[in-house]
Specification:
By secondary structure, the protein is of the alpha/beta class. The chain contains 13 helices and 22 strands. Helix 1 packs parallel to helix 9 (310-325) and helix 3 packs across helix 6. The N and C termini lie far apart (61 Å). Bound molecules: NADPH dihydro-nicotinamide-adenine-dinucleotide phosphate (NDP). NADPH dihydro-nicotinamide-adenine-dinucleotide phosphate binds next to helix 6 and strand 17. NAD(+) binds at residues 174-181, 261. Disulfide bonds join 42-47.
Length: 451
């Protein structure tokens, strides 16, 4: 049977674009459909605009520090309009880059929504049908709104980059990556931020000591964080949003942002009709080669809800191409993925938290928390944390957790050592780079506790 294409990719985000490009470079005839902007969540509504906003939000702190260092520095007003225009011009440029990557590699693109008609056929929103030997689902995810009365008055991270003006006050609901990052960003930009999280501590799943320090620092920076608190209902009230909360309060905010998780974009795709198995959250179920229950259909990235991170989606896309087009079956390895949360201060983490490691066997914990030189001189109260979780039997470093300015940069490098199976003694043998914050990671001699 002959097909129009060797591969049809649905979704032009990080995973889909990488898979399409690499498959085309391997000699496959490839097409890709994207209904929105190329680049997907990471480029258009996630990592990239978020990080630019992180940079923007850090300037007031830099100016304060500059004063403490003897500069006659003053911060003026932040012009959201000017920043937003520049931000969107940059996102337009990046969209062009993504389109060019595809075009230059001979991938045919369709600016259309696509759904599955059968195991080898995609139907586009203009009614046309395309056949392919393999189909790759890479539709990503979308924010979920909680079922709360008046939730439609709130925004999500999708809209935050498009606000007409920055609100004076904002409530952020949630305690995950997005909620915490935006609480810090908006606080830095001068918005009075309140954050409600239903659990006992933000950043569930991460090392407890590390998340505790991030929470403490966020509060110290002026974020009004309420734990064990959820929204009961919301209503419009004189141009503001009135929010009734489970802690018995009723407060008014200019904006409410939900960062209450994301759901895979699988609705209305014709997946169930075809027998593509989905999980409880609507995620496409795949094996270690990213193959779905229908052999010609594969899926990568957030649509599979495995580990919703851009570099992981890219890895999954490349492993898929290696498996299907290069005859080299390559499972995707999701172990020891370093990651950073761009709160202020940042958290960088790789491997097991102390709590996870403790459940697996005897461990030693090495940790130090201190005021870094730069911030201390500037009179800031900020503390940082460097922490290693070590297996008492094998001496391997099972987890590394850093809360500090620049922790994202640091954990990328520490991640290599942890990934290589470095022992505590390997860390110890490495000479410190002085004076830095990260030198503490190789100078901790005695465990603070064993478990
Ligand atoms: P998360 O799943 O990380 O967090 C969702 C948060 O919302 C949790 O705190 C959750 O609480 C809470 N929540 C869920 N439902 C409700 C509800 N009905 N009412 C109140 N609270 C609720 O999702 P995010 O949206 O923050 O991020 C999605 C994913 O995007 C992340 O998992 C991450 O993989 C990725 N991401 C990565 C970034 C990075 O690498 N720096 C940055 C941003 C996103 P509970 O803990 O109790 O379940």
């Amino acid at each position: 049977m002959s097909f129009d294409y060797d591969l049809f990719v649905i979704g032009g985000g990080s995973g889909g674009v990488r898979a399409a490009r690499v498959a085309a470079q391997a000699g496959a005839k490839v097409a890709l459909a994207e209904e929105d902007r190329y680049g997907g969540t990471c480029v258009q509504r996630g990592c990239v605009p978020k990080k630019l906003m992180v940079f923007a939000s850090e300037y007031p702190g830099h100016v304060e520090d500059a004063k403490a260092y003897g500069w006659d520095a003053q911060i003026g007003d932040f012009c959201w309009d000017a920043f937003r225009s520049k931000l969107h011009a940059e996102l337009d440029r990046l969209e062009g880059v993504y389109r060019n990557i595809l075009g230059n590699n001979g991938v045919e693109t369709f600016d259309a929504r696509a759904r599955l008609a059968d195991a080898h056929t995609v139907e586009l929103s203009d009614g046309s049908r395309k056949t392919a030997k393999h189909i790759l689902l890479a539709m990503g995810g979308w924010p979920v709104l909680p079922e709360i009365k008046g939730a439609d008055l709130g925004i999500t991270s999708n809209e935050v980059f498009h606000l007409d003006e920055l609100p004076e006050t904002m409530l952020i609901l949630g305690g995950g990556y997005i909620a915490c990052e935006f609480a810090c960003i908006l606080n830095g930009l001068g918005v009075k931020v309140t954050q409600y999280y239903r659990g006992a501590q933000i950043l569930r799943g991460f090392d407890e000591e590390a998340r505790g320090l991030v929470a403490e620092e966020m509060q110290q920076n002026g974020i009004d964080l309420h734990l064990g608190t959820n929204i009961l209902e919301m209503a419009e009230d004189g141009g503001k949003i009135r929010v009734k909360a489970t802690n018995g309060t009723e407060r008014h905010f200019d904006k409410v942002m939900f960062a209450t998780g994301r759901r895979p974009n699988t609705a209305g795709m014709g997946l169930e009709d075809l027998g593509v198995k989905l999980g409880r959250n609507g995620e496409v179920l795949v094996d270690e080669y990213s193959q779905t229950s229908i052999p010609s259909i594969y899926a990568v990235g957030d649509v599979t809800d495995r580990m919703n991170l851009t570099p992981v989606a890219i890895r999954e896309g490349m492993a898929f191409v290696e498996t299907v087009f290069n005859g080299n079956p390559t499972p995707v390895d999701h172990a020891l993925v370093p990651t950073a949360i761009f709160t202020q201060p940042e958290m960088g983490t790789v491997g097991l938290s102390e709590e996870e490691a403790r459940d697996q066997g005897p461990i030693e914990v090495y940790a130090t928390s201190f005021k870094p030189m730069r911030e201390s001189f500037a009179g800031r109260a900020q503390r940082v944390l460097m922490k290693l979780v070590v297996c008492a039997d094998t001496r391997r470093v099972l987890g590394c957790h850093i809360v500090a300015p620049g922790a994202g940069e640091m954990i990328q490098l520490a991640g290599i050592a942890v990934r290589m199976g470095a022992t505590k003694e390997d860390f110890d043998r490495t000479v410190a780079v002085h004076p830095t914050m990260s030198e503490e990671i190789v100078t901790m001699r005695e465990p603070v506790r064993t478990a």
